[in-house]
Design brief:
Distance between the termini: 42 Å
Strand content: 25-35%
Order of helices and strands: EEEEHEEHHEHEHEHEHEHEEHEE
CATH architecture of the largest domain: 3-Layer(aba) Sandwich
Structural class: alpha/beta
Mean pLDDT: 91
Largest sheet: 7 strands, mixed
CATH class of the largest domain: Alpha Beta
Number of helices: 9
CATH superfamily of the largest domain: Vaccinia Virus protein VP39
Oligomer: single chain
Low-confidence stretches: none
Strand order of the largest sheet: 9-8-7-10-11-15-12
């Protein structure tokens, strides 16, 4: 099992995603002899998981069932233990696209946090790219190192426990892209520029408050960055569902006589007008709003 390579069978030591329902997934470390409790009953790893194909439907001890899925960055984002506020798929998709990431890219990131974005970056830059990620909090840095090893992507990432605003990323002139998710990103802009390659590159800063964005944009301009722009991504999901529509009654056919229409019309026609069942989309009553501002900039070639 690896987050960047697909495996067919569940093996001892894998991290599997147990799909309990539409909005309920959990990550499970598969171990011989272990058990996992769910609301549908017990999952016994030795008999129910190990050796089964990913995507299998597993019956629990109470008769309920779950699906066991191969881990992906998207599933990890909704299943991971939150050590910090994380980025979700909507913003992650915009970040990876606007930073122009691809296999072989070298990326600098701060802070690592819970590793939600980190896993998406690693899947995008594999198999020859590298991620240099910086986390200020020592325990969070140690935990994410363990997770990268468990997920078998540790060969693609270097984790540093340091203050990026004071000590930088620990590398110079290597990064194709830089991502900042820290309280004062304007203090790290100089280190970000130093970490980027001479031929230029892209930078993204995620901030929840517009005051942070203003100071970051000013720092980017002072450091010579170009194409500075800020945006926020708002997702509106439409639900697809069947609806029944009553067809309007326009009266008798104008081309037929009134007597003929009266004879042919069934007695219940007036009481039960015709209806049509179709599938349509309906917008949500409430839409999730602001998550954060994404500020992008380009380092010019030097």
């Amino acid at each position: 099992m690896s987050f960047i390579e697909y495996s067919n069978l569940i093996q001892d030591g894998d991290v599997a995603i147990v799909h309990l329902g539409h909005n309920s997934v959990t990550a499970v470390k598969v171990q011989h002899g272990a058990q996992t409790q769910t609301r549908f009953g017990v999952i016994r790893h030795s008999t129910d998981l190990i050796g089964q194909r990913y995507g299998s439907k597993v019956t629990c001890s109470k008769g309920g069932w779950v699906h066991v899925l191969h881990p992906t960055p998207e599933l990890w984002t909704v299943a991971l233990p939150h050590r910090t506020q994380i980025l979700y798929t909507t913003d992650i998709a915009m970040v990876t696209m606007m930073l122009e990431l691809k296999p072989g890219s070298v990326v600098c990131e701060s802070g690592t946090g819970s590793g939600s974005l980190s896993h998406a970056i690693l899947r995008t830059i594999a198999p020859t790219g590298h991620l240099h990620t910086v986390e200020f909090h020592q325990q969070r840095a140690e935990k994410v190192v363990e997770e990268f090893k468990e997920h078998r992507v540790d060969h693609l990432v270097t984790v540093r426990n340091q203050d990026v605003c004071k000590d930088g990323f620990g590398v110079t002139g290597v990064a194709d892209a830089v991502f900042l998710d820290i309280p004062s990103p304007w203090e790290a802009v100089g280190h970000a520029k130093a970490a980027m390659k001479k031929h230029g590159g892209r930078l993204c800063s995620f901030s929840p408050c517009i005051e942070q964005v203003q100071r970051t944009c000013q720092a980017l301009t002072e450091r010579g960055f170009e194409e500075v722009r800020t945006l926020e991504v708002l997702l509106r999901v439409h639900n697809v569902r069947p609806v029944t529509l009553q067809l309007p009654d326009f009266g008798p056919d104008s081309f037929s006589s009134s007597s003929q229409a009266t004879e042919e019309a069934p007695p219940s026609a007036a009481l039960n007008p015709a209806s049509l069942k179709i599938k349509t989309t309906t917008p949500p009553r409430e839409m999730p709003g602001h998550t954060g501002y994404l500020t992008f900039a380009t380092k010019p070639r030097t």
